[in-house]
């Protein structure tokens, strides 16, 4: 999860998030090079004494500053499109979870486990235990296995919400009357936090998401849901 004074992105817990971090670094390096080039040109313009102010023909220069931006856009667009298509792939998920947004809590349904349904509310400050995170911990966590393709079916019952877990690279809108889906495969166990990322009313800040990821063998042993 994020911590105070953090500058970079959260550590990746899924292959998609690893790709997103790589693309972020790739685009940031291009931005640095562009900024350096522009600042260098400005420096030369301000410090160099012009010897000929009547030059009106610079076709080579115009060719360069027309083609170079196009090449830069291609270098950004190709990896971006690759990741975009990767996020839409559904590779035979082993487990399907349905998430329903409400004002202001989440309802989860394990469709592969006899329709197990439970609500997940943010823990009030009076109920927090030592080590719990204020505004982030919930009464019922979503327990899922690692190294297993998981499909999330996301919708809403009232207004627009957004189911987002940054460390997994997930952010999917929950829209009333529409069922969106996203898939992910967690690579390491742990407890990971997210929040609703769509302004949905007065208590928008009070509907967190908590995923508890455990090894598949433990998940298959029996009920590990924190109900």
TrEMBL record:
Residues 92-225 form the Cytochrome oxidase subunit II copper A binding domain. It is found in: Mitochondrion inner membrane. It comes from Homo sapiens (Human). Residues 1-91 form the Cytochrome oxidase subunit II transmembrane region profile domain. Its cofactor is Cu cation. The gene is COX2. GO terms for cellular component: mitochondrial inner membrane. Its main location: mitochondrion. It is a multi-pass membrane protein. Binds a copper A center. GO terms for biological process: electron transport chain. This is Cytochrome c oxidase subunit 2. Belongs to the cytochrome c oxidase subunit 2 family. The keyword Transferase does not apply.
């Amino acid at each position: 999860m994020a911590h105070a004074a953090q500058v970079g992105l959260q550590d990746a817990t899924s292959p998609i998030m690893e790709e997103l971090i790589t693309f972020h670094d790739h685009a940031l390096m291009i931005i640095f090079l562009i900024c350096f080039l522009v600042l260098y040109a400005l420096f030369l313009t301000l410090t160099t004494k012009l010897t000929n102010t009547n030059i009106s023909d610079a076709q080579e220069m115009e060719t360069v500053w027309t083609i170079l931006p196009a090449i830069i856009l291609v270098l950004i667009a190709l990896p971006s499109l690759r990741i975009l298509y990767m996020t839409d792939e559904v590779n035979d998920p082993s487990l399907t979870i349905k998430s329903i947004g409400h004002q202001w809590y989440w309802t989860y349904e394990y469709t592969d486990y006899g329709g197990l349904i439970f609500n997940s509310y943010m823990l009030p400050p009076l109920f927090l235990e030592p080590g719990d995170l204020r505004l982030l911990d919930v009464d019922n966590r979503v327990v899922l296995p690692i190294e297993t393709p998981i499909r999330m079916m996301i919708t809403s019952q009232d207004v627009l919400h957004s189911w987002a877990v940054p460390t997994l690279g997930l952010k999917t809108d929950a829209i009333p009357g529409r069922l969106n889906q996203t898939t992910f495969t967690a690579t390491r166990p742990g407890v990971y936090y997210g929040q609703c990322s769509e302004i949905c009313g007065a208590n928008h800040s009070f509907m967190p998401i908590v995923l508890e990821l455990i090894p598949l063998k433990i998940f298959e042993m029996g009920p590990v849901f924190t109900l």
